[in-house]
Design goal:
Blueprint (H helix, E strand, L loop, with lengths): L6 E6 L3 H12 L4 E8 L3 E5 L2 E7 L10 E4 L8 H11 L3 E4 L28 E3 L3 H17 L1 E9 L7 H15 L32 H14 L5 E5 L9 E9 L5 H9 L4 E3 L11 H4 L5 E8 L6 E8 L3 H17 L1
Parallel strand pairs: 1-2, 1-5, 2-4, 5-6, 6-7, 8-9, 11-12
Antiparallel strand pairs: 3-4, 8-10, 10-13, 12-13
Helix pairs in contact: 1-8, 3-5, 3-8
Bound molecules: NADP nicotinamide-adenine-dinucleotide phosphate.
Length: about 325
């Protein structure tokens, strides 16, 4: 990308991720020249007391835009499938939060703490990985470099904000109905009810009875870590937490490494905060992590039964590091390169 002092930026989508994108551009002081915000309809929105004009997106929206951050819905009728190519044609680099281009061979899938160099391989579109993948690879990246990774088994505890603004509204509505001793009659966008419940289904069921979310964690991790041989298996679960995903992750390394060595390694690694003092009840929890940009790791412990086995508890804000922050960090890499 041509060096400039300021870059014209478009944010597409003003749902759970798009709003966070506007906050992150501001908090990280990204050198924004002109900022354009797009949704499906024209209106003004307020984010933390600042008003933004939202315009209706169309194929001519990207004239003069250098970087287009897409946070619209996915799939056939989604914003990225419909408009990303128009943005590229107009000269913008697209950074897309959805799943539409992630596994495309011509599209780099980037987590700046793990594979920043892949940004340079872009041909107009760069993909942001899935939220549950991002936090896992940030925590495991330094371990992969130091001791190699043979196997990863993960169970996730994913917040409702991962399902977008309608999933947040369903959750609020269900709890409110319960508090008023009334049935919930609002829109249902999740596979099950969520108040006082958890359910092991994020996305739809796919190959070998794993869900699409579980396959994202497998395939995206292989692509980001440049190692398709890592044996990865996951169960992804929705929990009644408003924001911030947690993951219990079991790994087997190629070379043995102690829990103390992993703690020391992660402490000095970019983008990671180690919170690991279980005797004093210190470990990361969603209530403390919302709004933070780093990935938090605790409960680091060796499996006494397996020489190279280890457990980690990995927690991150899915709307920030799992989406908006990672996308803006990719944009920062892009203007550096
Ligand atoms: N939520 C997460 O934790 C998370 C994490 C990683 C990645 N992602 C991905 O990020 C993307 C956005 O997710 P979200 O949670 O923010 O969803 P969301 O809350 O449902 O918001 C979607 C936004 O996209 C806009 N939109 C949809 N179709 C559009 C179109 N054709 N043209 C213009 N705008 C369009 C909507 O506009 P209107 O407001 O005008 O209807 C809305 O503002 C999805 O691809 C999702 O998979 C989400």
């Amino acid at each position: 990308m041509k060096k400039k002092t300021k870059y014209n930026v478009a944010v597409v989508g003003v749902g759970a991720v798009g709003i966070e994108m506007l906050r992150v551009l501001k908090s990280r002081k990204f050198p924004v020249g002109q900022l354009k915000v797009f949704g499906r309809s024209r209106r003004a929105i307020d984010v933390d007391g600042q008003s933004y004009q939202v315009d209706e997106l169309n194929s001519d929206s990207f004239k003069g835009i250098d970087i287009a951050l897409f946070a619209g819905t996915e799939g056939e009728q989604g914003a990225a499938v419909t408009y990303a190519k128009d943005a590229v044609k107009a000269g913008a680099v697209v950074i897309d939060n959805g799943a539409d281009f992630r596994m495309d061979k011509n599209v780099p899938l980037v987590v700046p703490e793990v594979n920043p160099g892949d940004v340079k391989k872009h041909k107009g579109i760069i993909a942001n990985p899935n939220c549950s993948t991002i936090q896992m690879v940030v925590a495991l990246g330094p371990i992969q470099k130091k001791a190699g990774l043979k196997r990863i088994i993960a169970a996730t505890y994913q917040a409702v904000s991962g399902g977008g603004s309608k999933a947040i509204a369903q959750t609020d509505g269900e709890f409110k109905a319960w508090a008023n001793n009334e049935p919930y009659t609002g829109e249902k966008v999740m596979a099950q009810s969520i108040a006082f419940n958890i359910f092991p289904q994020i996305g739809s069921f796919s190959d070998n009875d794993f869900t699409t979310e579980e396959w994202k964690m497998v395939k995206e991790t292989h692509k980001i870590m440049h190692d398709p041989k890592i044996q990865i298996s996951c169960t992804t679960v929705r929990v009644p937490v408003r924001n911030v995903h947690s993951e219990a992750v079991y790994i087997e390394t190629k070379k043995p490494i102690s829990a103390d060595a992993v703690r020391a390694l992660l402490k000095k690694s970019k983008g990671i905060v180690v919170m690991d003092d279980p005797k004093n009840k210190i470990y990361p929890m969603p209530k403390d992590i919302s709004g933070r940009d780093e990935v938090f790791v605790g409960r680091i412990r060796k499996d006494p039964a397996v020489k190279t086995g280890m457990w980690l508890w990995i927690v991150a804000d899915n709307l920030r590091k799992g989406a908006a922050t990672n996308a803006v960090q990719i944009a920062e890499e892009l203007i550096k390169s």
